Amino acid sequence: MEAKRFHTIDDLMAWPSDERVELIDGEIIQRAMSRFEHGLAQSGLVEETIPLKRLGGPGGWWIVPEISVRYTEHHCPSHDLAGWRKERLPQRPSGVMTLAPDWVGEILSPGHERKDTVTHFLRLQRAGVPFYWIVSPEDRVLIAYALDAGCYRAIFTAEGPDETAAKVRIPPFETIEIDLGLVFGRL
């Protein structure tokens, strides 16, 4: 019996660029097809965090969508959104990131929920990513986690249509208000 071959970051980098793939625990997997709800939630979070991107130094962030982060030789996902504090990363980065983010936001896609709610959750927890948000646009749910003694603990939850009118302050972005209506696609 032949042993399973684990793909590496080199395999990922050599993959045809016209395919949307990422490296998850040694396996190159296809990324979910983009849906309007996913894009709306993603762009809503980008819009709401723009004030943080404009700040230099303390309080400033690099926040980008669809960013590949290399955690190990066999694990390099493309996060829906990820952010680094400018005090930790003062110069504009480029390419595939090798420094773990300070915040990751994933937007659930049908058929790929396990990847975001289990695989990424455990991997980011082990990597020491301080904040992890999961957004389900179809259910209008946002759950924010923070590391506490090496384990994620839910620090904020919003659920349902009543939340679409809320403006909230969620760590690590408590210096700004986030309009959940923009995130959840309020009409």
Could you give a short description of this structure?
The chain is an alpha+beta fold and 187 residues long. The chain has helices spanning 9-14, 36-54, 113-127, 180-184, and strands at 21-24, 27-30, 61-68, 78-85, 103-107, 131-136, 141-148, 151-159, 167-168, 178-179.
Can you put this structure into words, describing what you see?
24% of the residues lie in helices and 30% in strands. The protein has helices spanning 9-14, 36-54, 113-127, 180-184; strands spanning 21-24, 27-30, 61-68, 78-85, 103-107, 131-136, 141-148, 151-159, 167-168, 178-179. By secondary structure, it is an alpha+beta fold. It starts with 8 loop residues before the first helix and ends with a helix. It has four helices and ten strands. The strands form three sheets. Strands 3-4-5-6-7-8 form a six-stranded mixed sheet, sandwiched between helices. It has a single domain (34-184), classed as tt1808, chain A. It comes from Thiorhodovibrio winogradskyi. This is Putative restriction endonuclease domain-containing protein. Residues 10-165 form the Putative restriction endonuclease domain.
Task: Please render the helix and strand layout as text.
Layout: H1 9-14, E1 21-24, E2 27-30, H2 36-54, E3 61-68, E4 78-85, E5 103-107, H3 113-127, E6 131-136, E7 141-148, E8 151-159, E9 167-168, E10 178-179, H4 180-184
Parallel strand pairs: 5-6
Antiparallel strand pairs: 1-2, 3-4, 4-5, 6-7, 7-8, 9-10
List the uncertain runs: none
Spatial strand arrangement across the major sheet: 3-4-5-6-7-8
Structural class: alpha+beta
- Count up the domains: 1
Strand content: 25-35%
H-E string: HEEHEEEHEEEEEH
Helical residues, percent = 10-25%
Q: What is the residue-averaged pLDDT?
A: 89
The tally of strands reads 10
What's the Cα radius of gyration? 17 Å
Which fold name is given in CATH as the topology?
Answer: tt1808, chain A
Number of helices: 4
Report, as a whole number of angstroms, the end-to-end distance: 56 Å
Multimeric state:
single chain
Principal-axes shape call: globular
The CATH architecture: Alpha-Beta Complex
Which CATH class? Alpha Beta
Main sheet overview: 6 strands, mixed
CATH evolutionary superfamily: tt1808, chain A
